[in-house]
Design brief:
Order of helices and strands: HHEEEEHEHEEH
Distance between the termini: 56 Å
Structural class: alpha+beta
Radius of gyration: 15 Å
Strand content: 15-25%
Shape: globular
Number of helices: 5
Strand order of the largest sheet: 3-4-6-7
Number of strands: 7
Helix content: 25-40%
Largest sheet: 4 strands, mixed
């Protein structure tokens, strides 16, 4: 039996269809509980395009699609259930490098990316303010 889509998954589908409000999508991401895989007690992330992407999933079905290809051996994949707001407000800035959130990277439609920019992550971690470079000592 197929699970009903979460509200966040519905908002993502709307944006892919070219409808819906981007601000509503960001708001829904912040309010949603995301399942974030972990390995060795560390949250799963991947580097792409000079950004570290924390990978989160809207439901267990989306996480299971990811686990088929990424679970270590025959073990189940551990995960944490975290609010999107906690990921982008606390975890992303704590990584010490440009970082964002990638949601449902194993879906047929592809991931929805929440990049490290103003309005998604705190200004100090946003790459479009220049503060993230200064914080790491590269903006002098």
């Amino acid at each position: 039996m197929e699970q009903p889509r979460t509200v966040l998954a519905e908002r993502i589908a709307e944006r892919r269809a070219g409808i819906g409000d981007p601000r509503a999508l960001v708001g829904e991401m912040r309010r949603s509980v995301l399942l974030v895989p972990s390995v060795g007690g560390r949250l799963w992330s991947a580097h792409s395009g000079g950004v570290r992407w924390v990978c989160g999933f809207t439901d267990e079905e989306a996480l299971a699609r990811f686990a088929v290809h990424h679970a270590p051996g025959d073990r189940s994949l551990d995960y944490a259930a975290l609010l999107g707001a906690r990921i982008v407000d606390e975890i992303v800035p704590g990584l010490g490098e440009p970082a964002g959130l990638a949601v449902d990277i194993a879906t047929e439609d592809g991931a929805m990316f929440f990049p490290p920019v103003t309005g998604i992550v705190p200004d100090a971690a946003a790459v479009d303010t220049g503060r993230s470079e200064e914080r790491r000592g590269h903006g002098r």
